[in-house]
Each structure stands twice: as C-alpha cells, then as structure tokens.
Amino acid sequence: MSYQDPQPARITFEQWDELFARIPDELIDRFHYFPPNSFSWSKYLFPPQTFAIYGARHLRRLKFDNSLASLRLWGFVNNESERLFRARQMGKRVIAVMGDLGPLAVIVNSFPDCIPFYPDCWWWTPFAMESKVLLDAAASLGIGEATCFSRAALGAFAKHSYFPDPDLILAATGASCDDYSGVESLVAKLTGRVKWVETPLRLSGQNEQLIRFLVAEYHRVVSALEDLTGTRLTGTMLKDGIRRANRVRHLTSRLRQLAYQHGVLPALETMMVEFGCLHYYSDITEWTAILEHLLSTAEFRLKNGLLVLNPESLRIAWLTPPADPLLLCFVEDHNARLVATEYVINQALSIIDESLPGLAGIARTTLAGSLNGTSAQRAELLITQARTNQAEGVIVSGILGGSHCAMESKLIAQHIKQRHNIPILEFDVAPPAKEVDRQTRTRIEAFLEVLRSRRCQKS
Amino acid sequence: MAIIADSEIERLRRERIEELKRIRSEGQKVVGYICQYVPVEIIQAAGAIGVRLARADYLSSLLGEQFLRADACPFCKSCLGKFETDPLYQLTDALVFVNTCDMMRRLPEAVGAQKNLPVFQVYLPRNSEPCLNRIEEFERQLALLRDGLTNLTGRNWDDHRLLTAIKDYNLIRALLTRIDSARQTLPPLVKGSEILDIVALSWLLSPKQAIDLLTEVSQRLNALNLRRKTEDINPELGPPSFRPRVMIAGSILTEDDREVIQMLEAQADIVADELCTGVRFFAGQIELDKGPLRAIARFYFNRIPCAYRRPNDLLYEHLQQLIQERRVQGVIYKTLLYCDPWRFEAKHLRQMLKIPVLEIDGDYSGANIEQLRTRIEAFIETLGQHQEADGEF
Amino acid sequence: MSEILTPRERFGLLVIDEVPDRVPLFPLLTSYAATYSGVPLRDYYTTGETMARCQLQAREFLQTDFISIFSEVGILAEALGSEFIYPEDDLPILSRPRWRTLQEASDHLQKCSNPDPSSAIRHFPGQTRFRVYLKAIDYAYEAIGDRVPILAYIPAPFTTAQQLVEPEAFLLGLLDSPELILQLLKYTTEAAISFSRLVIRAGALPILVDPLASGSVLSPEQYQQFALPSEKMVIDYWHRYDLDVVLHICGDTTGIISLMPATGADLVSVDKIDLEQALTAVGEQVRLIGNFDTSDLWLATPAVIEEQVEKMVLSGKGCPRGYVAATGCEVPLATPRENLMAFVRAVKRAGGYDYPKH
Asked: Average pLDDT, stretch C49-67?
C-alpha cells in the first residue's frame, strides 16, 4: 500500500480534501463496517466533504487530525445513522439503550446480531448540522429551550429518519440526568414500548448490596433480549461480550494517556474515541479495528517525536463534554491542549472486572458512573487526572437549564478549588451556531491569558 | 365561613415551634425532611420528631445562590437560604433526604457543604414498577435509615413504636382524606387553601396534636354540612350559584406560596389538587400484611407518583380520577422555573386531560404577578359556571 | 400542514433504500426561479447571491425538496474557452466554440496536458460564472443546507465537448474521427472532475446532466461508445466521496435507458420516455426521477396537470429502488404559477407512503 501519513498536523476541511485526493481507491475499498461483508454501501473511508454535503455543515468549521486512522474514525462516526438502517436491512436487531451511557450496551452486544446504540448521542446532531430541526421537533413534543441539548434524541425518535425504529428500547434512569429522564419519559409515551431499568444512587459502603440490586435489574434486561432474539444468553456469550468491551476500553485508556500526556492526538478525535466506549458507534468489531489503527498511529508518533500539539501549550482539564466540538478546536487554536477530561461517561471507560460473574462486573462499572454519586466524587475523577498530567486550569462547560449542571457546577468548582488550587472557568455552551459566540470566545481567551501569566510568574 | 381561621393556623404554628424549641432543649432530636417519600413513621419510631421543611420565598432563594447556580431549582435554592433565615429550619438536628429529582439528589451535598448537620440520604428507585428487588432494596435503605436515626437519638429500636407510628399516621391520612372529600360537595364545604394549610399543620404538629386538630376540623365540617342541608332555600331566589371548580397540580407548592391560591379562590373553588403538599401527601394507607418495615417500603414506593418517577402513568390515572370525581372544569398547572420533571409533562398532560389547562410558572420573585393575575382571571372566566344539585359529604 | 420530515431527511432515507414519508418532489425549477422572483435572467446567472435568493424564494413558495444551482450547460465549455453571449432575457448562447475542428482541438491538447478550469477566466461583468455557481451554492447552503439538499448541475463531458468544437465538425467526427472525439472527451472529463471538486467542497451534491447525449443526437451505439464511458468516469470520481449520483439526460432516452445504469448512476432522471417502460427496464437497478412533460406543465390546465401527475406518481411509486417525482426537464420560464402549484399538490397527495405519525 503506497499511502503514508503526512507529518502530523491539525488540518482544515479544505486541506482534508487535498489529502483525500492522494488516497488510492484500493484503500477506500478496503474498509467496511460490519466486516467481513464487502457491500459497496458498507465502505466508510470518506472525507468530511461527503458528510458536509449531506448536512453536517459544522465539519467545515473544524480542524482534524490528518492521519489515515483519523479519517477512518470520522468516516465511521459520521456514517452511523446509515449503518443502523443497514443493520436492520441485514436482519440484525437494533436496540436503543438510553441513559446509562455504557453498561447496557455490553449486555446487548453479547447477543448475536444485536446492535446497541445510544440515541443520547444524537445530541450532537444539531451542532453537526448547525440546525434547530431536531430541537424544534422536541419542542413540538413538549421539551423546549432551557433544557439539555439531549432533547434532540426525542426529535430523532419522532422523525424515524435518524435511526430505524428500534426493536427494543431500554431506558435507564435513576441517579441520572433529569433532562434526559424527561426525554426518556416522552419517548416512552411516543413509542409505547420502553423497558425501564434502574440506575442506582451510589452510597458509601453499600456497593455490594447495590451490585446485587443491579444484577437483578440486568436479569430483566437479559430476559427481554432473550424473548426478542429467541436466544438464551450463556455465561460464555456474556464473557465474550465483556471481553470485547474491555478491549475497546483498554485501547481507549491507552489512547487517552497518549493524547493527554504527550499531545499525539488532538482533543476532538480523543473525545470521539472516549464516546466510542458507549456503543462503539454501532459496530464493535470495526470500531476496535479503528482504535487499533489509531493506537499504532499514536505510538508511532510518540516514538518518533511527531507530536500534533505543541508540548508547551497550556494544559487544560475539561469537565462535561462541550456540546459544540468547535470549542475544543478553539482552545487548541489558542495554544492550549487538553490533559484531563470528565465527560460524564466514567462508567463506559471503566474496565469491567472479568474475575466477577458477568452481570456483577458490569454492575460494578455502572456504580462507578459519573453522575451516580456526589459532585465531589465526580470532581475527584477529574482532579486525579489533572494532578497526574499537571493541568494548569479547568474548564467546566454546561448547558443553561441542564438540571445536573445547575446543581453540580458550583459544588464541583468549590471542591476543585479546595483540593487543587487552579483557576476554573465555567460557562454554558451556546445553541448551535457557525462559530463560537463572542462572549464565550472572550471568556476563554481571557482565561487562557490568566493561565499564561500564572505560568510566567511561576517560571 | 372558614373552617379554620388564619389566626388559628398561625397560633398553632407559632406554639408548635416554641414547643419544638423546648423539647429540643430537653434532648429530643428534631429531624427535618422535605420529600413526601420520606417515611415519617421511622423518624417517629426512632424517637425523633419529624418536621417537614416545605417553605420557600424569594429572599431565601437569592441566599441559596451562593451555593447553586441561578438556573437551579428555586425551591432547592430557597431551602439552602432558609437555613439562614427560618426558625423552623434552624431547629433541625438532622435531615433526611430521598433522592428524587436531580436537584433534590444533590441538595444534601449542598446542605452538607453549608451546615454541619447529619444528613441521611435514602435511595428510592426512580423506577416505579414494584419489582421485588426494588422493594427489597428500598426496605434495606429504610433499615439503614432506622439504624442511623436510632444512633442519632440514642434510643433502642422497638418495632412496637413503629407499629404505633404507622397507626397514628394512617389515622392522620384517613382524617385528611375525609376532610378533603368535603371539597367534593357543590359548592365545596372547605376551601382548597384551607386543605393545604391543614395538611401543612399535620406535618408540623405531633401525631396526637394532628389527630386532635383533624378530628376537630372534621367535626366542624360535619356541623357545617348539617347546617347547609337544613338551611331554607328561598324558592324565589333559586338555588345558590356555584363558582368554577378547578384543580391545582404541579411542582411542590410550599406552605407560604399562597399568592396564586388567593387569586384563584377570589373567583373559583379549588376542589382538588395533585400536589405533594396536598392530596399526594395523605393519599392511601399503610397496610400491615407484611412486617412493618416492608409494609412502609411498599407504601412509600407505591405512592401516587411524583412526575419524576418512571413510568408516571399512575399520576395521570389519579389526575383523571380526581377530575371526574370532583367535577373539575379546569386545571392550573403551576410549576417552578427549571423544574424539569413537571415542566416536561405539561404538553402530555394537556393532551391527556382534555379539559382546559392553564400553565403558569414562577421562581418566588413575584416578577410576573400582575400578568399572572390577568391570566388567571381570564382563565376562570372561560370556565363558566355549573348549576348542579348538592353533592353528599 | 407541516410535514414530518425535512427534504434532507426524506432524500436521506431514499438513498439508503429506506421508505420516506412521501416521494421527494423535484420540479426542475432552475432558471424558472428567476421568472418567479421577477429577476432578469442575466442577473440570475451572473450573480451568485441573486441565483441563490431566487432559488430560496421559489422553494419557499412551492415547498419543493431541492435547491437547483444551474443556469445552462455551457458553463464548463465557457471556462475552457468557448465564447457565449449574455442576452438580458435569455440564457447564455454559444457564439463561438473554442475550436473550429477536432484536429485543431487535438493539436492543442497534445501541447497542453493540464486543463485547469478553476482558474479559467471569463469576465462579465468581472465575475467568472464558476464563481457565480460557487457563491450561489455557498449562499444557499448556509441558508438552508441543514434542511434541503443543494444540487449543483454539472455538464457532462460529452455535452461540454460538443460546445468546444463547431457542431457540424463534432457530429461528423463521431463517424469519421472517433479517436479525436475520445481525446477531447478525456479533456472534458478532467475538466468536469476539477469543477465538481470545487462544487463538492462548497457543499452541493453534484448531479450530472448530459442533454446532448440523448437519443435526439446519438444512437445507442454512439452513446455507449462516447458518452457513457465519460459519464462513468465522472460518476466513479463522485463515488469516491460516496455521493448518490443523479444522471439526467433529457430528450428521448428510450434507446439508451437500459445502458444508463452501467454509468454507475444511483438515480436516473428521465424525460421523453414512457415511465412504465423505464421502470421495467431499470427499476430494479436504479432509483428513477421523472418525468412529467414540461410542455404540458406549461400549457395544460391545473386540473389536467393534477390528474396526470397523480397517475405518474402512482406509477413511479412502484419503483423497487425508489422514486422522485419530477419534471422531465427544466420548468419552462413561462409556466403559470398555478400549474406548478397543481403539480406540487398532486405529488404530495398521491406520493405518500405508509409512514409513522405522531
């Protein structure tokens, strides 16, 4: 194969088209989702231009890593809606898992030909398309502004055009986000067929009992899947499912370490990698291959001193994923880089203990969820990484009206100040737009200036 | 004619707070709770005095913004502020929370950061389907609460005291239910505001005091009903005219949040409510077919659901039942700003109930009060009046 | 009454072999948009923002499912050196092809191996028409690209080639000098690909139009020898981007309909051919677009149009790969508004599929 990655860089939308012109047809033909199939429609190595034509307008504003592995990532991620429809066409079961962000997908993936996906992740669609279409659809069903952008998922259900009507909807709620629980409730009323699952509150000293409780919840999920598929879940199947999930989580962990400690991958791609742990963008096999490719690229870069980000950049920890990917690009354009993240998905990143019985191992990771416990515990997740990677500042991004943001932000900021005395910037992400709004821009710029001057003073 | 005068309510409240101060100084613990899902019976049986903290105002919500963002629940913000301003809140020796909505789930942490008070957080599964593991887990949580509270009070646990508490609070609920049914008559024998005030007293007073008060109120209603039946009706004047019959539903309506109630009662009768500080607080009875802790767990687990629970279909069933029974003509759906669990239900509620619904929201600031008045007046006018025969009490 | 899907969502389902809420609606509005907006044609095709605004206004009024960025098929030939005149109330007219003979073309092409249409300059009044196209795409894309697909019509290599050489010389060359035709086609194919790269980057979905390859001009054998391979090369290039490719050949395609899928096109837009015949010939292989007669659209009454469109749609819906209700070619400039409205009404009434509603 004649193609070689160029010198690592963050490149623009237009530059990707130039680079794509050099990619040979054989390489485009090589990568397919749902391997080992090789239908023409299952190719996915396409540049951002493709998806921009089909409505993902925001891609034109972003900057991307210029590796082939990253191109695979973007093509694969942007292709997901189509992949879900194709899954149904191929006779696979498409299972919506909502709210728990990681654990239920492991169970679903343990069944043959069952594809889990999180409608929650469609919260990015309004930003990707710079569009209010899904938000307006949600508003017509009763969830208006001043609520989390995850209401886009409700709009997507109503449209039936972003994913096929699921064969089963598993909705996890409990010690989770109210806004999204509201979305789930309205999805239940819309579809009339949601199986509810509890996500318990994490209380000190009660892990073993709560794990037992969760295992009972998961037995019901397993029964529902067995009824749907006509297949009994054996211990071996569940073990294999967990092993595959853990492979993804181990790869993700290593990639995070390389990205955040060494700057070999930009924050945007690393964020997409983290979110891949939720449901592997609906194809665990191919996603695993993409992660392996990314990892070999990252390790090659590290070994050869080829960093994509300036190692002297300001080091930032970021809590709660910015709904708008442009914010990550903005920060990197201003000579800062992410070294620690807490994206509300700790349960998806945690390695499942394979020495435990399957459902218990999964339950343990559920309990480790970002939102299950106190805000102080969540803050600690970030502080640990921030200390290890010497973060100089923390950004806390939220959503106006987002219920857990309103309650947590100050508590988290307080806790971080007490435990790790570094500057904190809090702001709410603005609704979908073509560019970062002026107020947010000014605030981030000013914050970075503060960090720069602190660094100067220290040195 | 009021069944219970405002002055009487104030007096009872004032006297009880003084009494609590005295009892506390003698060593008994006062345990505050906010949510209707907290089993007050366990607090009682542990030897503590349970008082519900369900008050809010704008000043205290502004104080609460030291700890929470401006777009946090106004009730939760006010709760934090009340610890600085309200004598009842300042009397508490410990607090019991149940994780319900996002905001309430984090309130204990915010309180803990502000006050040096023991805080007990009880986990109630959000899912309302009464699967065995969920009831068992809740029962286990209540056992932990029991142990924590007996540690606090220093008293040994005795199931007998729990049975007594269950009996007392069952009676309180039964009396409240009976008093509430006086709203069913045409016109109602008791006002909606009076019901809310009486319910608020019932969670402040001791069980015995509450039972005495409710028995007295019940007797007053009996007398009033008898008087009404035997009063002559002048055939030339025709039967009495009846005002529009409305229901109020929505987010927590605190004891001191009465502006909207007053506006409504100037022109209509509040014949029903779907509030955790109203009907949902006293609906049902604990049935002792299993051990008392299991019975309590089942009862509280299966309460008419707050909107945050999933699914919450039973809430709608109850709403529709009340509308039918009480001949409700319109619903005032009052929510707090940023109260997602209730606000998200508004559209669905409208579709399900099929009678006029007025949605209003607020944050205790009173900023939109005149606008609200106009809207309420217009809403009541559209409801019209019914001419019906007297109902039975 | 508002529909459940946006045009983009509708088209998105169609091209992944899913059933949308109704057939997409595609009267080829193109220059008609200028008439609709009362804008002189010359302003329409020489100012990108004007072109886009006219399209948006027409689309807003009729609630159709696509925006069409297009004036006429000479844009590439003009960029490669042919001369056009710009009447105020008519589309550009070819006044002088670049070369008089095929040999002249061949001699030039042998000397120069890299035609770059993106840098071709043709001033009137200081804007190249490439830039007009790209500006129009950009404007429309920013305005409505989240909800409505923006289509940019790209003249196919064969159509462009015919406008680079004197017509008689070209047509004779099909018989006498096929190798020179093929050489010229290689040049115009590269030009079409270069141009479409710009269009792709601007955010439009390119569609390939090859009116001069219809049965009125070529025999099926000539189509297969000359037009089809160059169409396929452009389409293969667009498939590198996984684009869903529309191939539009107006005029009589009865003789070549069975050949058109071999170009790789995903959607085939037809004009003067019986729709049932097209369905039978290619309905299992490609999605069909078409094909209401544009003369009828112009001259018939609304009632007749509604009746005929309904019949067309009911027939087209049966296409196994999917169907887009369209006119056979561009909507004539003088078409009465009420006729277009009748077309739209009939498509929406007859074109519904069984789609969940809430």
From this structure: 97
Burial label, B365 (beta-carbon count in 10 A; 0-12, 13-18, 19+): middle
Contact partners for chain C, using 3 or more CB pairs closer than 8 A, are A
C177-222 pLDDT tens trace: 999 999 999 999 999 999 999 999 999 999 999 999 998 889 999 9
- CB contacts of C356 in chain A (<8 Å) are 160, 165
The beta-strand segments (E) located in A149-244 are: 168-174, 195-199
Domain boundaries, chain A: 82-232, 309-342+374-459
Residue A70 touches chain B, beta carbons under 8 Å: no
Q: Which residue has the tokens 């508003």?
A: A139
| Domain A309-342+374-459 in CATH 3.40.50.11900 | yes
Omega prior to A66 cis, within 30 of 0: no
Chains contacting B (3 or more CB pairs within 8 Å): A
Bridge pairing between strands A93-98 and C246-248: unpaired
Gap from B321 CA to chain A (nearest CA, Å): 20
Pick from C200, C240, C244, C266 the residue to mutate for testing the A interface (most A CBs within 10 Å).
C240
* Partner A contacted by B69 (CB < 8 A): yes
Look-up of token digits 């710079």: A130
Angstroms from C273 CA to nearest CA on chain A? 30
Interface residues of A toward C, Cβ cutoff 8 Å, are: 13-14, 17, 20-21, 25, 28, 41, 43, 46-47, 49-50, 52-55, 57, 60, 81-82, 85-86, 89, 129-131, 133, 141, 158-162, 164-165, 190, 434
CATH topology of domain C22-285: TIM Barrel (3.20.20)
Q: A82-232: what fold?
A: Rossmann fold (3.40.50)
Put simply, whether A158 touches B (Cβ < 8 Å) is no
User: Any idea where the domains of chain C sit in the sequence?
Assistant: 22-285
Nearest C-alpha in A relative to B120:
A203
Distances (CA, A) of C263 to C73, C210, C253, C328: 20, 12, 14, 20
Say if the Cβ atoms of C358 and A89 lie within 8 Å: no
Place of tokens 């061949």: C106
Is the CB of C358 less than 8 angstroms away from the CB of A158?
yes
CA-based nearest residue to C84, from C46, C114, C33: C46
Give the predicted TM-score (pTM) of the model. 0.95
C135 touches chain A (CB under 8 A): no
- Name residue C269's beta-bridge partners: C248, C289
Going along chain B from its start, the domains and CATH numbers come out as 12-151 (3.40.50.11890)
Identical topology for domains A82-232 and A309-342+374-459: yes
**ipTM of the complex, rounded to two decimals:** 0.95
The answer to whether residues B43 and B31 touch, using CB atoms and an 8 Å cutoff, is yes
Of A429, A436, A318, residue with least CA distance to A61: A436
Q: CA-to-CA distance for C184 and B383, rounded, in angstroms?
A: 80
Per-residue pLDDT of chain B (393 residues; tens, 9 = 90+): 688 899 999 999 999 999 999 999 999 999 999 999 999 999 999 999 999 999 999 999 999 998 888 889 999 999 999 999 999 999 999 999 999 998 899 999 989 888 889 999 999 999 999 999 999 999 999 999 999 999 999 999 999 999 999 999 999 999 999 999 999 988 899 999 999 999 999 999 999 999 999 999 999 999 998 888 887 555 554 555 579 999 999 999 999 899 999 999 999 999 999 999 999 999 999 999 879 999 999 999 999 999 999 999 999 999 999 999 999 999 999 999 999 999 999 999 999 998 999 999 999 998 889 999 999 999 999 997 544 444 433
| Separation between Cα atoms, residue A290 and residue A286, nearest integer Å | 6
Asked if the model's pLDDT at residue A217 lies above 90, the reply is yes
CA distance linking residue B304 with residue B31, whole number of Å: 24
pLDDT of res. B391: 42
Contact state of C8 with A53 under an 8 Å Cβ cutoff: no
